């Protein structure tokens, strides 16, 4: 009875989801077919979904792999920077979070309030003085400047602390009885238990790092040090002469993260939604 | 020394030390510097204390008012579109009414835009909202018999393009937040309601919405923050910081223009301080209004 009543609703929803999926994927599809066409034509005419096979060619892809200037350099920079930033952020943030989760000490509450405070200050408000600070420390145009301010990462610390508060204190006590040092307990006993939370935070921080734009744009000066988004951005100018690379490079930059996403979908979703408060 | 470092008393401080250093060097010092700089006129090699002059100049600055209005307009637009619709979509997905394979594909597809960098997404959208009749959006409105529009040259149509970009990138993420929230609601609540004869709408009103409140507050908070501090999307859509008649200029865009492009650090710092106060005040009002503080206190 109930089933038959909801049949129109079921069909309606299924059709709605199919339509919405198509709409969502149209921009990706548009840049994909755009990458087989002439770049300066596209910039003039705009992207659409029709493809003129007489004009389409693999030239852009050939150019990408043979004569794309710094493109793969940027790609490589982005990859290395992402990996280094993720590993260091997870290591340092989890280290800090253990301090907040496992001990009671003076200043603990005010310090934790500082963590929450940083989470609610827009980075954009700080970027100018931070930029001045980096220059004063003679760190401009270095990768250190890109990642150092964010290694003890407030929202990552917050997430790890929430995760660690659920770990029984007996583990820590047992470690102490076995003669492990305070740090040994963290590295040998606690870190292995934190694995699932590492996966979620690796994805979240990895995505942020891979797509990071404004801060590297301010800090990095030389083209050979650019990350992929910054490098692509230099191709955007109205006087650009390499729109082919802009289009095909934009498309190609989505590919690795899309492949990772299709392989590790569950972790991506967990990572992205990790910040949300669970009822 | 070594013994002290390994003692249980000192260990917690060693653990939180990286955070303390980061907080002092990269947050506290810049914030204080920012406030001090906002009371100065900074020229190369010469800095002069001007008290609140930057602020008085700011409040009489027509362009700054445009930037604030644009940021607020964008924030309000994202609040209207990117909270109710994702909530509805999450409920529809969670209802398990649609074909389960289709729903799974939809869930995966919805998340793809969030993986693209703002540089790439902005480039794609600029070309989709191109001026010629061959650009996708002009083709779409052409189906309804409308003439091609120069989307990014007019305030209203530019706003539509910007919101389209925001929706495309964040709809899926916000929907995931709500799905996560929905899954934490115990199923017996709904069963009990069904026994009591509640209809779907009543269940939504009296169970789903109240139970989703923490998620709603969270999404609201990050949307206010992200909306007022938006810069990247507009920067990419307009190929830089200069849009026609400043239709795409935001508060952060103005900060960037004054601080980086015009090198007027004192004035730019004043913009930054105003932005910080705006975000904090609105979020505090919002958290008090939704009772989040009370709940925290009662725990």
Q: Would you kindly provide a written description of the structure presented here, covering whatever features stand out?
A:
The complex is a heterodimer of chains A (279) and B (299). With 279 residues, chain A is mainly α. Chain A has 2 domains: 2-65; 70-234, Orthogonal Bundle (MetI-like fold), CATH 1.10.3720.10. Chain A is built from 15 helices and no strands. The longest helix of chain A has 33 residues, at 2-34. Chain A is globular and about 75 Å long. The two termini of chain A are 34 Å apart. Chain B is mainly α and 299 residues long. Chain B contains 16 helices and 2 strands. Chain B has helices at residues 2-5, 11-37, 53-59, 62-82, 84-94, 100-111, 118-128, 136-143, 155-183, 187-195, 200-211, 213-228, 232-237, 251-261, 265-289, 292-298, and strands at residues 40-43, 46-49. Chain B has a two-stranded antiparallel ribbon. Chain B is globular, with a radius of gyration of 24 Å. At the A-B interface, helix 1, helix 2, helix 4, helix 5 and helix 6 of A face helix 2, helix 6, helix 7, helix 8 and helix 9 of B.
User: Helicity level of chain A, as a percent range?
Assistant: over 70%
Task: Quote the average pLDDT of chain A.
Answer: 86
CATH superfamily of chain B: MetI-like
Q: Which CATH architecture of chain B is right?
A: Orthogonal Bundle
């Amino acid at each position: 009875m109930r089933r038959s009543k909801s049949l129109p609703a079921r069909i309606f929803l299924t059709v709605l989801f199919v339509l919405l999926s198509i709409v969502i994927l149209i921009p990706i599809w548009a840049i994909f077919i755009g990458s087989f066409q002439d770049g300066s034509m596209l910039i003039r005419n705009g992207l659409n979904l029709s493809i003129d096979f007489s004009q389409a060619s693999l030239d852009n892809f050939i150019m990408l792999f043979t004569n794309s200037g710094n493109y793969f350099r940027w790609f490589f920079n982005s990859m290395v920077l992402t990996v280094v930033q993720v590993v260091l952020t997870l290591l340092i943030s989890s280290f800090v979070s253990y301090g907040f989760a496992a001990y009671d000490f003076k200043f603990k509450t005010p310090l934790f309030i500082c963590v929450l405070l940083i989470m609610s200050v827009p980075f954009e408000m700080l970027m100018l003085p931070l930029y001045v600070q980096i220059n004063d420390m003679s760190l401009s145009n270095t990768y250190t400047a890109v990642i150092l301010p964010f290694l003890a990462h407030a929202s990552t610390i917050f997430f790890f602390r929430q995760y660690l508060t659920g770990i029984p204190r007996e583990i820590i006590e047992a470690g102490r009885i076995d003669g492990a040092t305070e740090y040994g307990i963290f590295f040998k006993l606690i870190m292995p238990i934190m694995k699932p939370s590492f996966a979620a935070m690796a994805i979240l921080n990895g995505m942020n790092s891979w797509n990071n734009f404004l801060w590297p744009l301010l800090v990095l000066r030389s083209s050979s040090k650019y990350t992929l988004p910054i490098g692509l951005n230099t191709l955007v100018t109205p006087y650009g002469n390499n729109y082919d690379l802009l289009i095909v490079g934009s498309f190609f930059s989505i590919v690795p993260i899309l492949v990772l996403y299709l392989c590790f979908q569950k972790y991506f979703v967990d990572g992205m939604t990790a910040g949300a408060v669970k009822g | 020394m070594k013994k002290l470092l390994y003692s249980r008393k000192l260990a917690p401080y060693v653990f939180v030390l990286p955070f303390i250093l980061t907080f002092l060097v990269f947050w506290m010092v810049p914030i204080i510097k920012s406030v001090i700089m906002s009371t100065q006129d900074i020229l190369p090699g010469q800095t002069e204390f001007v008290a609140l002059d930057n602020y008085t100049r700011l409040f009489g600055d027509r362009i700054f008012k445009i930037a604030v209005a644009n940021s607020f307009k964008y924030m309000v637009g994202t609040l209207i579109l990117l909270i109710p619709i994702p909530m509805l979509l999450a409920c529809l997905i969670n209802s398990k009414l649609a074909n389960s394979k289709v729903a799974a594909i939809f869930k995966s597809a919805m998340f793809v835009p969030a993986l693209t960098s703002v540089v790439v997404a902005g480039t794609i959208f600029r070309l989709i909202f191109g001026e010629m009749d061959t650009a996708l959006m002009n083709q779409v409105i052409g189906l309804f018999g409308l003439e091609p529009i120069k989307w990014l040259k007019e305030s209203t149509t530019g706003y539509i393009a910007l919101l389209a970009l925001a929706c495309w990138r964040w709809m899926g993420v916000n929907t995931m937040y709500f799905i996560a929230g929905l899954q934490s609601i115990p199923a017996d609540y709904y069963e009990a309601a069904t026994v009591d004869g509640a209809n779907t709408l009543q269940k939504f009103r009296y169970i789903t919405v109240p139970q989703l409140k923490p998620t709603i507050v969270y999404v609201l908070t990050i949307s206010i923050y992200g909306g007022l501090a938006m810069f990247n999307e507009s920067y990419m859509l307009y190929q830089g910081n200069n849009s026609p008649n400043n239709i795409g200029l935001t508060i952060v865009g103005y900060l960037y223009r004054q601080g980086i492009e015009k090198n007027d650090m004192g004035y730019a710092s004043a913009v930054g301080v105003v932005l910080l106060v705006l975000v904090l005040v609105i979020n505090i009002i919002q958290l008090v209004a939704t009772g989040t503080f009370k709940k925290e206190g009662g725990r």
